[in-house]
Write a structure and sequence with these properties.
alpha/beta, Beta-Lactamase, Rossmann fold, 2 domains, seven-stranded mixed β-sheet, six-stranded antiparallel β-sheet, 13 strands, ATP binding
Length: 378
């Protein structure tokens, strides 16, 4: 029988795993609610020859050549009766290893994800730059997918995505959606970005702002009347601004700050935290919405003052991460210890009023309800 990854992937799905890790000579591992665990029924080390053959079966000829030349390759894989996976195949100590991440086949709504309502408002802005940021595995792609679905369901717009790889496959509704995958539909992010404005887009989704060229294209597109959605691997609004500016040489940084101040619509920075009372995780966010005052701070390089703007901007949908952590603790959704481990200023939570375990959410409702995790692809 031809070796296949599918039995392990089915076991992973049954265990509610978000990720699967396969390494030649070691047992398969799952990531469940943020922690690694063995795969039920697959506790023996994976033979190197078996894993090589199984991986060979999911790669195209071009991907095999890419893997042979560079020692790593990104792709997507569809397992029958199970769904799609984002896959990275790589070499380690001369052996094959694979990291797979489940991709949801159904678009979760922002409400189901527990994402703040302002995400929907930002998705429907007519132009500008919207960023979803956070560490690896924080659900950025899932949030962006929900935002694109809002656009697709609401606006007669042309949406073009550039992804590596394509995760959720959108069906055009009110919008016309074209999705381009690196290595399949276009040679590279740079190649796709150089031509995207000739394709008459209204909305552009760039899977990740990776370098000067992608950032420059995103800012230029936002300046010329397009809505641009993208992600950064940063934690917090201020760090996201600094990351973009710092990519450029010093003589260009004032210009980039000006472009950001003019084009930025908002930043949603998110993390996934373990729930206090049961298995699963929930989202904690920080939200910056651009205003004339915020734009001035960005242009002048005073990003340290954005924290105060977010603290005072609740009427516009803004809040800091620490404010959201306070809400989650007060609702009994996450423990105080977990919240403090994620907080920018753990001492700011010292006076938080924690919901007693014996009180259910309804009895504690005056303090805000639990925003539960549902449907996250990492």
């Amino acid at each position: 029988m031809t070796p296949t990854l599918d039995p392990i992937l089915h076991a992973a799905a049954s265990a509610r795993a978000s990720d699967v890790h396969l390494t030649a000579g070691a047992p398969a591992q799952l990531r469940i609610d943020g922690d690694l665990a063995p795969v039920p029924g697959f506790t023996e080390p994976l033979p190197a020859a078996w894993l090589e053959a199984a991986v060979e079966g999911i790669l195209t000829p071009d991907q095999r050549a890419d893997f042979a030349a560079h020692g790593e390759v990104d792709l997507s894989y569809t397992a029958p009766d199970l769904g799609r996976f984002r896959v990275n195949v790589f070499r380690q100590v001369g052996q094959t290893a694979v990291a797979l991440r489940f991709i949801n086949t159904r678009v979760s709504t922002l409400a189901e994800l527990g994402a703040p309502a302002i995400c929907g408002d930002l998705a429907l802005r007519p132009r500008g730059l919207v960023l979803v940021t956070g560490p690896t595995g924080s659900g950025k792609s899932t949030t962006l997918t929900a935002m694109v679905d809002i656009i697709n369901s609401t606006l007669p717009a042309h949406v073009i995505t550039i992804e590596d790889p394509i995760e959720f496959q959108h069906t055009s509704k009110r919008s016309l959606v074209h999705q381009r995958e690196i290595g399949t539909d276009t040679a590279s992010f740079a190649e796709a970005l150089r031509r995207i404005l000739r394709q008459d887009p209204d909305v552009i989704l760039i899977g990740e702002l990776r370098d000067q060229e992608s950032i420059h294209t995103a800012l230029s597109a936002a300046e010329t009347g397009h809505l641009v959605l993208s992600t950064l691997h940063t934690q917090g609004a201020a760090k996201s601004i600094n990351r973009i500016v710092d990519v450029f040489p010093s003589h260009q940084q004032d210009q980039i700050r000006t472009q950001l101040g003019d084009t930025l619509q908002g930043i949603i920075s998110q993390s996934l935290l373990p729930l206090a009372q049961r298995a699963g995780r929930t989202i904690a966010t920080e939200v910056l919405v651009n205003t004339p005052a915020v734009a001035n701070l960005i242009r002048e390089g005073q990003v340290g003052q954005l924290y105060s703007a977010m603290q005072a901007g609740s009427a516009l949908g803004m809040h800091t991460l620490d404010q959201d952590l306070r809400r989650l603790v007060e609702a009994g959704t996450v423990s105080l210890a977990v919240a403090k481990s994620y907080a920018a200023d753990p001492k700011s939570l010292d006076d938080v009023r924690v919901r007693p375990a014996e009180l259910d959410a309804d009895a504690w409702s005056m303090h805000g309800g639990e925003r539960q995790l549902s449907g996250w692809s990492q």
